[in-house]
Protein backbone atom coordinates (compact mmCIF):
# COMPACT_ATOMS: atom_id res chain seq x y z
CA UNK A 1 0.00 0.00 0.00
CA UNK A 2 1.16 3.50 -0.86
CA UNK A 3 0.05 5.91 1.86
CA UNK A 4 0.71 9.63 2.04
CA UNK A 5 0.41 11.12 5.54
CA UNK A 6 -0.59 14.76 5.96
CA UNK A 7 -0.40 16.94 9.06
CA UNK A 8 -1.95 20.34 8.52
CA UNK A 9 -4.53 21.47 11.02
CA UNK A 10 -2.81 22.88 14.12
CA UNK A 11 0.88 23.49 13.52
CA UNK A 12 4.05 22.16 11.90
CA UNK A 13 2.49 21.02 8.60
CA UNK A 14 4.34 18.02 7.24
CA UNK A 15 4.04 15.10 4.84
CA UNK A 16 5.29 11.53 4.96
CA UNK A 17 5.17 8.65 2.51
CA UNK A 18 4.91 5.03 3.63
CA UNK A 19 5.09 2.26 1.03
CA UNK A 20 4.33 -1.33 2.12
CA UNK A 21 4.97 -0.37 5.74
CA UNK A 22 8.30 1.31 5.04
CA UNK A 23 8.86 5.03 5.53
CA UNK A 24 10.48 6.31 2.36
CA UNK A 25 10.23 10.07 2.90
CA UNK A 26 9.09 12.56 5.53
CA UNK A 27 9.54 16.32 5.63
CA UNK A 28 8.17 19.44 7.23
CA UNK A 29 6.72 22.19 5.07
CA UNK A 30 8.86 24.84 6.81
CA UNK A 31 11.98 23.44 5.17
CA UNK A 32 10.50 24.25 1.77
CA UNK A 33 8.52 27.43 2.49
CA UNK A 34 11.30 28.85 4.76
CA UNK A 35 8.70 29.98 7.27
CA UNK A 36 9.43 28.66 10.77
CA UNK A 37 6.87 26.00 11.79
CA UNK A 38 5.25 26.38 8.37
CA UNK A 39 2.58 28.76 9.63
CA UNK A 40 1.23 30.37 12.77
CA UNK A 41 -0.93 27.93 14.75
CA UNK A 42 -4.17 29.89 14.33
CA UNK A 43 -7.66 28.73 13.34
CA UNK A 44 -7.68 30.80 10.16
CA UNK A 45 -4.47 29.16 8.92
CA UNK A 46 -5.86 25.65 9.40
CA UNK A 47 -6.54 25.23 5.68
CA UNK A 48 -2.84 25.54 4.79
CA UNK A 49 -1.50 22.22 3.55
CA UNK A 50 2.07 20.94 3.31
CA UNK A 51 1.84 21.24 -0.45
CA UNK A 52 5.54 21.34 -1.22
CA UNK A 53 6.49 18.63 1.26
CA UNK A 54 3.74 16.35 -0.08
CA UNK A 55 4.72 16.94 -3.71
CA UNK A 56 8.36 16.23 -2.86
CA UNK A 57 7.48 12.97 -1.03
CA UNK A 58 5.70 11.74 -4.16
CA UNK A 59 8.51 12.87 -6.46
CA UNK A 60 11.08 11.11 -4.30
CA UNK A 61 9.26 7.81 -4.87
CA UNK A 62 8.39 8.48 -8.51
CA UNK A 63 4.67 8.46 -7.75
CA UNK A 64 1.79 10.56 -9.02
CA UNK A 65 -1.09 11.58 -6.71
CA UNK A 66 -3.38 9.10 -8.49
CA UNK A 67 -0.96 6.28 -7.64
CA UNK A 68 -1.70 6.60 -3.92
CA UNK A 69 -3.87 3.99 -2.22
CA UNK A 70 -4.75 6.36 0.61
CA UNK A 71 -4.03 9.74 2.15
CA UNK A 72 -4.05 9.87 5.96
CA UNK A 73 -5.10 13.26 7.34
CA UNK A 74 -4.20 13.47 11.04
CA UNK A 75 -7.43 14.97 12.39
CA UNK A 76 -10.95 13.59 12.36
CA UNK A 77 -13.54 16.41 12.39
CA UNK A 78 -16.30 13.89 13.23
CA UNK A 79 -14.78 13.46 16.70
CA UNK A 80 -14.55 17.16 17.50
CA UNK A 81 -16.97 19.24 19.57
CA UNK A 82 -17.57 22.99 19.63
CA UNK A 83 -14.79 24.79 21.50
CA UNK A 84 -17.05 26.25 24.19
CA UNK A 85 -18.53 22.80 24.88
CA UNK A 86 -14.99 21.61 25.57
CA UNK A 87 -14.30 24.55 27.89
CA UNK A 88 -11.90 26.25 25.49
CA UNK A 89 -11.90 29.98 24.86
CA UNK A 90 -11.29 29.81 21.12
CA UNK A 91 -14.07 31.63 19.20
CA UNK A 92 -12.61 30.84 15.78
CA UNK A 93 -12.09 27.13 16.40
CA UNK A 94 -15.06 26.32 14.15
CA UNK A 95 -12.89 27.40 11.21
CA UNK A 96 -10.62 24.45 11.93
CA UNK A 97 -13.53 22.05 11.61
CA UNK A 98 -14.73 23.64 8.39
CA UNK A 99 -11.27 23.45 6.86
CA UNK A 100 -10.70 19.91 8.08
CA UNK A 101 -13.96 18.72 6.50
CA UNK A 102 -12.91 20.30 3.21
CA UNK A 103 -9.37 18.91 3.36
CA UNK A 104 -10.03 16.15 0.78
CA UNK A 105 -11.04 18.74 -1.80
CA UNK A 106 -8.20 21.08 -0.83
CA UNK A 107 -5.79 18.16 -1.23
CA UNK A 108 -7.17 17.40 -4.69
CA UNK A 109 -6.37 20.99 -5.67
CA UNK A 110 -2.91 20.87 -4.09
CA UNK A 111 -2.08 17.47 -5.63
CA UNK A 112 -3.77 17.41 -9.06
CA UNK A 113 -4.90 13.92 -9.98
CA UNK A 114 -5.58 12.84 -6.39
CA UNK A 115 -8.91 11.11 -5.80
CA UNK A 116 -10.43 12.86 -2.75
CA UNK A 117 -12.20 9.61 -1.88
CA UNK A 118 -8.83 8.17 -0.88
CA UNK A 119 -8.46 10.68 1.98
CA UNK A 120 -9.03 9.12 5.42
CA UNK A 121 -9.48 11.15 8.58
CA UNK A 122 -7.27 9.66 11.30
CA UNK A 123 -7.90 10.59 14.97
CA UNK A 124 -5.15 13.04 15.89
CA UNK A 125 -3.86 11.17 18.93
CA UNK A 126 -4.01 7.79 17.24
CA UNK A 127 -1.73 9.31 14.59
CA UNK A 128 0.62 10.54 17.34
CA UNK A 129 0.49 7.13 19.03
CA UNK A 130 1.27 5.27 15.80
CA UNK A 131 4.19 7.63 15.14
CA UNK A 132 5.74 6.31 18.36
CA UNK A 133 4.57 2.72 18.65
CA UNK A 134 5.00 1.68 14.98
CA UNK A 135 8.23 3.60 14.41
CA UNK A 136 10.03 2.35 17.53
CA UNK A 137 12.67 -0.35 17.01
CA UNK A 138 12.10 -3.76 18.69
CA UNK A 139 8.68 -2.78 19.96
CA UNK A 140 6.13 -5.23 18.51
CA UNK A 141 4.47 -5.03 21.89
CA UNK A 142 4.76 -1.73 23.72
CA UNK A 143 2.90 0.92 25.64
CA UNK A 144 2.48 4.37 24.19
CA UNK A 145 1.69 7.67 25.81
CA UNK A 146 0.66 10.70 23.77
CA UNK A 147 1.17 14.01 25.59
CA UNK A 148 -0.17 16.86 23.56
CA UNK A 149 -1.69 20.32 23.58
CA UNK A 150 -4.96 19.20 22.03
CA UNK A 151 -6.53 16.92 19.48
CA UNK A 152 -10.19 16.71 18.49
CA UNK A 153 -11.54 16.65 22.05
CA UNK A 154 -8.71 15.28 24.20
CA UNK A 155 -5.15 16.25 25.07
CA UNK A 156 -3.64 12.87 25.88
CA UNK A 157 -3.90 9.21 25.00
CA UNK A 158 -2.60 6.10 26.72
CA UNK A 159 -2.55 3.13 24.38
CA UNK A 160 -0.97 -0.23 23.73
CA UNK A 161 0.49 -1.73 20.59
CA UNK A 162 0.25 -5.46 20.08
CA UNK A 163 1.67 -6.43 16.68
CA UNK A 164 -0.24 -4.51 14.03
CA UNK A 165 -2.98 -3.34 16.42
CA UNK A 166 -3.12 -0.18 18.45
CA UNK A 167 -5.58 -0.26 21.35
CA UNK A 168 -6.58 3.00 23.07
CA UNK A 169 -6.79 2.66 26.86
CA UNK A 170 -7.44 6.12 28.31
CA UNK A 171 -7.78 9.67 27.03
CA UNK A 172 -7.99 12.90 29.00
CA UNK A 173 -10.66 15.22 27.67
CA UNK A 174 -10.15 18.95 27.18
CA UNK A 175 -9.95 21.52 28.63
CA UNK A 176 -7.43 19.66 30.80
CA UNK A 177 -4.17 19.72 28.90
CA UNK A 178 -0.55 19.57 30.06
CA UNK A 179 0.52 20.90 26.68
CA UNK A 180 -1.84 23.89 26.76
CA UNK A 181 -0.78 24.74 30.34
CA UNK A 182 2.86 24.75 29.24
CA UNK A 183 1.93 26.84 26.19
CA UNK A 184 0.16 29.38 28.41
CA UNK A 185 3.28 29.75 30.51
CA UNK A 186 5.41 30.11 27.38
CA UNK A 187 3.27 33.08 26.37
CA UNK A 188 3.23 34.51 29.91
CA UNK A 189 7.04 34.45 29.93
CA UNK A 190 7.20 36.47 26.71
CA UNK A 191 8.06 33.64 24.32
CA UNK A 192 6.23 32.49 21.23
CA UNK A 193 3.40 30.13 22.08
CA UNK A 194 3.36 26.71 20.34
CA UNK A 195 6.95 27.31 19.31
CA UNK A 196 9.25 28.29 22.16
CA UNK A 197 8.25 25.82 24.88
CA UNK A 198 11.82 24.48 24.91
CA UNK A 199 12.98 27.93 26.08
CA UNK A 200 10.79 27.57 29.18
CA UNK A 201 12.40 24.18 29.81
CA UNK A 202 15.87 25.74 29.47
CA UNK A 203 14.92 28.63 31.75
CA UNK A 204 13.59 26.16 34.35
CA UNK A 205 17.10 24.93 35.09
CA UNK A 206 18.00 28.45 36.25
CA UNK A 207 15.22 28.45 38.86
CA UNK A 208 13.96 26.60 41.94
CA UNK A 209 10.44 25.08 42.06
CA UNK A 210 9.30 27.18 44.99
CA UNK A 211 5.80 27.66 43.50
CA UNK A 212 5.18 23.92 43.18
CA UNK A 213 2.61 23.75 46.03
CA UNK A 214 0.50 26.44 44.37
CA UNK A 215 0.76 24.77 40.95
CA UNK A 216 -0.27 21.40 42.39
CA UNK A 217 -3.67 22.90 43.15
CA UNK A 218 -4.28 23.27 39.40
CA UNK A 219 -2.20 20.51 37.82
CA UNK A 220 -2.41 17.03 39.33
CA UNK A 221 -3.08 13.42 38.35
CA UNK A 222 -6.56 12.12 39.14
CA UNK A 223 -5.39 8.57 39.87
CA UNK A 224 -7.34 6.95 37.03
CA UNK A 225 -4.83 7.51 34.24
CA UNK A 226 -6.06 11.07 33.68
CA UNK A 227 -5.27 14.45 35.16
CA UNK A 228 -6.51 17.92 36.01
CA UNK A 229 -4.59 20.66 34.20
CA UNK A 230 -6.39 23.96 33.67
CA UNK A 231 -6.99 27.36 35.18
CA UNK A 232 -3.48 28.18 36.41
CA UNK A 233 -3.45 31.85 37.57
CA UNK A 234 -0.05 32.67 36.07
CA UNK A 235 -0.30 36.40 36.78
CA UNK A 236 -0.65 35.66 40.50
CA UNK A 237 2.53 33.58 40.44
CA UNK A 238 4.73 36.10 38.65
CA UNK A 239 4.46 39.22 36.54
CA UNK A 240 4.30 38.61 32.79
CA UNK A 241 7.49 39.23 30.84
CA UNK A 242 7.51 41.29 27.64
CA UNK A 243 9.24 39.69 24.64
CA UNK A 244 12.23 42.03 24.83
CA UNK A 245 12.50 42.33 28.60
CA UNK A 246 15.18 40.53 30.62
CA UNK A 247 14.01 37.49 32.59
CA UNK A 248 14.00 37.64 36.38
CA UNK A 249 14.52 34.99 39.04
CA UNK A 250 10.72 34.86 39.48
CA UNK A 251 10.37 33.90 35.81
CA UNK A 252 12.96 31.14 36.20
CA UNK A 253 11.29 29.93 39.42
CA UNK A 254 7.84 29.68 37.86
CA UNK A 255 9.36 27.83 34.89
CA UNK A 256 11.08 25.42 37.31
CA UNK A 257 7.80 24.93 39.20
CA UNK A 258 5.84 24.22 36.00
CA UNK A 259 8.50 21.79 34.86
CA UNK A 260 8.36 19.99 38.22
CA UNK A 261 4.57 19.67 38.26
CA UNK A 262 4.64 18.41 34.66
CA UNK A 263 7.21 15.77 35.53
CA UNK A 264 5.41 14.45 38.60
CA UNK A 265 2.11 14.29 36.72
CA UNK A 266 3.73 12.42 33.83
CA UNK A 267 5.30 9.94 36.23
CA UNK A 268 1.86 9.14 37.60
CA UNK A 269 0.45 8.63 34.08
CA UNK A 270 3.36 6.37 33.17
CA UNK A 271 2.91 4.26 36.32
CA UNK A 272 -0.81 3.91 35.66
CA UNK A 273 -0.12 2.77 32.09
CA UNK A 274 2.48 0.24 33.20
CA UNK A 275 0.04 -1.11 35.76
CA UNK A 276 -2.37 -1.86 32.91
CA UNK A 277 0.07 -3.28 30.35
CA UNK A 278 3.18 -4.52 32.22
CA UNK A 279 5.14 -3.86 29.02
CA UNK A 280 8.89 -3.29 29.10
CA UNK A 281 8.94 -0.63 26.37
CA UNK A 282 7.25 2.76 26.53
CA UNK A 283 7.08 5.01 23.48
CA UNK A 284 6.23 8.67 23.76
CA UNK A 285 4.82 11.13 21.24
CA UNK A 286 3.06 14.49 21.18
CA UNK A 287 4.57 17.93 21.64
CA UNK A 288 5.16 17.45 25.38
CA UNK A 289 7.39 14.45 24.53
CA UNK A 290 9.94 16.93 23.12
CA UNK A 291 10.57 17.92 26.77
CA UNK A 292 13.83 16.01 27.17
CA UNK A 293 14.12 16.80 30.89
CA UNK A 294 10.73 15.20 31.58
CA UNK A 295 11.57 12.26 29.30
CA UNK A 296 14.71 11.61 31.29
CA UNK A 297 12.83 11.58 34.55
CA UNK A 298 10.32 9.10 33.06
CA UNK A 299 13.23 6.90 31.93
CA UNK A 300 15.01 7.19 35.29
CA UNK A 301 12.13 6.93 37.75
CA UNK A 302 9.36 5.28 35.73
CA UNK A 303 8.62 1.54 35.65
CA UNK A 304 9.46 0.84 32.01
CA UNK A 305 12.86 -0.68 31.13
CA UNK A 306 13.18 1.26 27.89
CA UNK A 307 11.70 4.58 26.78
CA UNK A 308 11.77 5.51 23.10
CA UNK A 309 10.73 8.91 21.79
CA UNK A 310 10.00 9.51 18.14
CA UNK A 311 12.22 12.38 16.92
CA UNK A 312 9.34 14.27 15.25
CA UNK A 313 7.25 13.92 18.41
CA UNK A 314 5.33 17.16 17.77
CA UNK A 315 2.49 17.51 15.30
CA UNK A 316 4.80 17.09 12.29
CA UNK A 317 5.13 13.45 13.35
CA UNK A 318 1.40 12.82 12.91
CA UNK A 319 1.98 12.82 9.13
CA UNK A 320 4.16 9.75 9.61
CA UNK A 321 1.94 8.26 12.32
CA UNK A 322 -1.24 8.68 10.26
CA UNK A 323 0.38 6.97 7.29
CA UNK A 324 1.73 4.12 9.46
CA UNK A 325 -1.67 3.62 11.10
CA UNK A 326 -3.51 3.33 7.77
CA UNK A 327 -0.73 1.13 6.44
CA UNK A 328 -0.90 -1.24 9.43
CA UNK A 329 -4.69 -1.23 9.26
CA UNK A 330 -4.44 -2.45 5.68
CA UNK A 331 -2.26 -5.37 6.75
CA UNK A 332 1.21 -4.03 5.96
CA UNK A 333 3.86 -4.69 8.62
CA UNK A 334 5.23 -1.33 9.80
CA UNK A 335 9.01 -1.14 9.61
CA UNK A 336 10.74 0.64 12.48
CA UNK A 337 12.46 3.93 11.94
CA UNK A 338 16.22 3.66 11.49
CA UNK A 339 16.99 7.38 11.57
CA UNK A 340 15.50 10.85 11.33
CA UNK A 341 17.22 11.50 7.98
CA UNK A 342 14.09 11.19 5.87
CA UNK A 343 14.21 14.51 4.01
CA UNK A 344 15.91 15.85 0.89
CA UNK A 345 19.43 15.13 -0.30
CA UNK A 346 21.61 15.92 -3.29
CA UNK A 347 24.27 13.93 -5.13
CA UNK A 348 27.91 15.06 -5.04
CA UNK A 349 27.59 16.16 -8.68
CA UNK A 350 24.50 18.22 -7.91
CA UNK A 351 26.22 19.90 -4.96
CA UNK A 352 29.24 20.66 -7.15
CA UNK A 353 26.93 22.25 -9.73
CA UNK A 354 25.32 24.41 -7.01
CA UNK A 355 28.74 25.67 -5.88
CA UNK A 356 29.79 26.34 -9.47
CA UNK A 357 26.61 28.29 -10.18
CA UNK A 358 27.13 30.35 -7.03
CA UNK A 359 30.78 30.95 -8.11
CA UNK A 360 31.94 29.85 -4.68
CA UNK A 361 35.60 28.79 -4.38
CA UNK A 362 35.84 25.35 -2.83
CA UNK A 363 38.13 22.39 -2.26
CA UNK A 364 37.40 18.70 -2.57
CA UNK A 365 39.65 17.20 0.12
CA UNK A 366 40.47 13.50 0.27
CA UNK A 367 38.16 13.10 3.29
CA UNK A 368 35.81 15.90 4.30
CA UNK A 369 35.51 14.33 7.78
CA UNK A 370 39.24 14.88 8.40
CA UNK A 371 39.13 18.46 7.08
CA UNK A 372 36.23 19.26 9.39
CA UNK A 373 37.89 17.66 12.42
CA UNK A 374 41.02 19.77 11.84
CA UNK A 375 39.01 22.98 11.54
CA UNK A 376 37.14 22.15 14.75
CA UNK A 377 40.39 21.28 16.55
CA UNK A 378 41.67 24.74 15.53
CA UNK A 379 38.51 26.13 17.20
CA UNK A 380 36.75 26.97 13.92
CA UNK A 381 32.98 26.77 13.54
CA UNK A 382 31.73 24.39 10.84
CA UNK A 383 28.45 24.26 8.95
CA UNK A 384 27.86 20.57 8.22
CA UNK A 385 25.51 19.72 5.34
CA UNK A 386 25.50 15.96 4.70
CA UNK A 387 22.95 13.46 3.41
CA UNK A 388 19.21 13.68 3.91
CA UNK A 389 17.77 16.44 6.09
CA UNK A 390 16.18 15.63 9.44
CA UNK A 391 12.49 15.05 10.15
CA UNK A 392 11.70 16.78 13.45
CA UNK A 393 13.12 19.82 15.22
CA UNK A 394 16.63 18.55 16.08
CA UNK A 395 19.76 18.68 13.96
CA UNK A 396 21.21 15.18 14.12
CA UNK A 397 24.33 15.40 12.02
CA UNK A 398 22.83 16.23 8.66
CA UNK A 399 22.16 19.98 8.91
CA UNK A 400 24.33 20.91 11.89
CA UNK A 401 26.55 23.67 13.18
CA UNK A 402 29.62 22.15 14.87
CA UNK A 403 32.22 23.54 17.27
CA UNK A 404 34.96 22.55 19.76
CA UNK A 405 33.41 21.62 23.15
CA UNK A 406 36.58 22.34 25.12
CA UNK A 407 36.30 26.12 25.02
CA UNK A 408 33.64 27.50 27.36
CA UNK A 409 33.30 30.62 25.22
CA UNK A 410 31.92 28.57 22.31
CA UNK A 411 28.46 28.52 23.92
CA UNK A 412 28.26 32.30 23.73
CA UNK A 413 29.90 32.29 20.32
CA UNK A 414 27.33 29.87 18.87
CA UNK A 415 24.40 31.67 20.49
CA UNK A 416 25.75 34.85 18.88
CA UNK A 417 26.12 33.17 15.47
CA UNK A 418 22.52 32.04 15.75
CA UNK A 419 21.27 35.24 17.38
CA UNK A 420 19.56 33.46 20.28
CA UNK A 421 19.25 33.84 24.05
CA UNK A 422 22.36 33.26 26.13
CA UNK A 423 20.53 31.14 28.73
CA UNK A 424 20.08 28.39 26.15
CA UNK A 425 22.52 25.51 26.09
CA UNK A 426 24.16 23.87 23.10
CA UNK A 427 24.38 20.12 22.94
CA UNK A 428 27.08 17.54 22.30
CA UNK A 429 27.28 14.67 19.84
CA UNK A 430 29.40 11.78 21.05
CA UNK A 431 30.58 8.47 19.68
CA UNK A 432 28.11 5.83 20.87
CA UNK A 433 30.83 3.59 22.32
CA UNK A 434 32.29 6.45 24.39
CA UNK A 435 29.04 7.93 25.70
CA UNK A 436 28.71 5.87 28.90
CA UNK A 437 32.10 7.05 30.14
CA UNK A 438 31.12 10.71 29.93
CA UNK A 439 27.33 10.95 30.14
CA UNK A 440 25.00 9.28 32.65
CA UNK A 441 21.46 8.72 31.34
CA UNK A 442 19.47 6.69 28.79
CA UNK A 443 21.73 5.20 26.10
CA UNK A 444 21.83 5.10 23.17
CA UNK A 445 20.28 8.51 22.64
CA UNK A 446 20.30 9.05 18.86
CA UNK A 447 17.63 11.79 18.78
CA UNK A 448 18.64 14.25 21.55
CA UNK A 449 15.43 13.62 23.48
CA UNK A 450 16.94 12.93 26.90
CA UNK A 451 19.31 14.84 29.15
CA UNK A 452 22.34 13.26 30.75
CA UNK A 453 24.49 14.13 33.75
CA UNK A 454 28.01 14.97 32.65
CA UNK A 455 30.58 12.98 34.65
CA UNK A 456 32.38 15.37 37.05
CA UNK A 457 35.78 14.45 35.57
CA UNK A 458 34.58 15.59 32.14
CA UNK A 459 32.84 18.85 33.04
CA UNK A 460 35.98 20.93 32.73
CA UNK A 461 37.03 19.11 29.56
CA UNK A 462 33.82 19.87 27.61
CA UNK A 463 32.57 23.08 29.28
CA UNK A 464 30.77 24.44 26.20
CA UNK A 465 28.18 21.64 26.33
CA UNK A 466 27.59 21.47 30.10
CA UNK A 467 24.36 23.24 31.05
CA UNK A 468 24.11 25.30 34.26
CA UNK A 469 22.69 22.24 36.08
CA UNK A 470 25.55 19.94 35.05
CA UNK A 471 23.60 18.15 32.32
CA UNK A 472 23.84 17.83 28.55
CA UNK A 473 21.28 16.81 25.92
CA UNK A 474 23.39 14.37 23.96
CA UNK A 475 23.20 12.72 20.56
CA UNK A 476 24.97 9.37 20.36
CA UNK A 477 26.49 8.57 16.97
CA UNK A 478 26.41 4.97 15.78
CA UNK A 479 29.30 4.39 13.31
CA UNK A 480 27.28 1.86 11.31
CA UNK A 481 24.38 4.23 10.85
CA UNK A 482 26.37 7.47 10.43
CA UNK A 483 29.88 6.51 9.24
CA UNK A 484 30.94 9.96 8.01
CA UNK A 485 29.95 11.62 11.27
CA UNK A 486 31.67 8.89 13.30
CA UNK A 487 34.86 9.29 11.25
CA UNK A 488 34.85 13.03 11.92
CA UNK A 489 34.37 12.41 15.66
CA UNK A 490 37.20 9.83 15.77
CA UNK A 491 39.57 12.19 13.97
CA UNK A 492 38.59 15.02 16.33
CA UNK A 493 39.32 12.74 19.29
CA UNK A 494 42.70 11.82 17.79
CA UNK A 495 43.56 15.52 17.54
CA UNK A 496 42.14 16.73 20.86
CA UNK A 497 41.49 13.71 23.11
CA UNK A 498 37.76 14.56 23.14
CA UNK A 499 35.23 12.17 21.49
CA UNK A 500 32.64 14.94 21.69
CA UNK A 501 31.72 17.81 19.36
CA UNK A 502 29.24 20.64 19.92
CA UNK A 503 26.20 20.19 17.67
CA UNK A 504 23.43 22.71 17.16
CA UNK A 505 21.00 23.19 14.32
CA UNK A 506 22.16 24.85 11.11
CA UNK A 507 20.01 27.95 11.02
CA UNK A 508 19.91 31.47 12.31
CA UNK A 509 17.36 32.83 14.79
CA UNK A 510 13.73 32.64 13.77
CA UNK A 511 14.45 30.71 10.56
CA UNK A 512 13.81 27.04 9.85
CA UNK A 513 16.75 24.69 9.66
CA UNK A 514 18.75 24.80 6.44
CA UNK A 515 17.43 22.23 4.01
CA UNK A 516 18.73 22.78 0.49
CA UNK A 517 22.15 23.90 -0.81
CA UNK A 518 20.98 27.47 -1.40
CA UNK A 519 19.86 27.73 2.25
CA UNK A 520 23.28 26.42 3.29
CA UNK A 521 25.13 29.02 1.21
CA UNK A 522 22.88 31.83 2.45
CA UNK A 523 23.35 30.80 6.08
CA UNK A 524 27.11 30.43 5.61
CA UNK A 525 27.35 33.76 3.85
CA UNK A 526 25.49 35.65 6.57
CA UNK A 527 27.06 34.25 9.73
CA UNK A 528 30.65 33.99 11.01
CA UNK A 529 31.10 30.31 10.22
CA UNK A 530 34.65 29.28 9.23
CA UNK A 531 33.95 26.27 7.05
CA UNK A 532 30.99 24.90 5.11
CA UNK A 533 31.28 21.14 4.63
CA UNK A 534 28.71 20.42 1.95
CA UNK A 535 28.88 16.85 0.68
CA UNK A 536 32.53 16.21 -0.20
CA UNK A 537 33.28 19.93 -0.66
CA UNK A 538 34.87 22.38 1.77
CA UNK A 539 34.12 26.09 1.42
CA UNK A 540 36.34 28.28 3.58
CA UNK A 541 35.27 31.68 4.82
CA UNK A 542 38.60 33.29 3.90
CA UNK A 543 38.43 31.99 0.34
CA UNK A 544 34.80 33.01 -0.06
CA UNK A 545 35.43 36.62 0.76
CA UNK A 546 38.55 37.23 -1.32
CA UNK A 547 38.43 38.89 -4.73
CA UNK A 548 39.56 36.73 -7.61
CA UNK A 549 42.25 39.03 -8.95
CA UNK A 550 44.74 39.79 -6.22
CA UNK A 551 43.57 37.74 -3.30
CA UNK A 552 42.58 40.84 -1.41
CA UNK A 553 40.21 40.15 1.38
CA UNK A 554 37.03 42.17 1.04
CA UNK A 555 35.14 41.00 4.07
CA UNK A 556 36.00 39.08 7.12
FE1 LIG B 1 -0.73 17.05 18.39
TrEMBL record:
Residues 2-324 form the Carbamoyltransferase domain. Residues 373-541 form the Carbamoyltransferase C-terminal domain. It comes from the Bacteria. GO terms for molecular function: catalytic activity. Belongs to the NodU/CmcH family. This is Carbamoyltransferase. It comes from Actinospica acidiphila. The lineage of its organism: Bacteria, Bacillati, Actinomycetota, Actinomycetes, Catenulisporales.
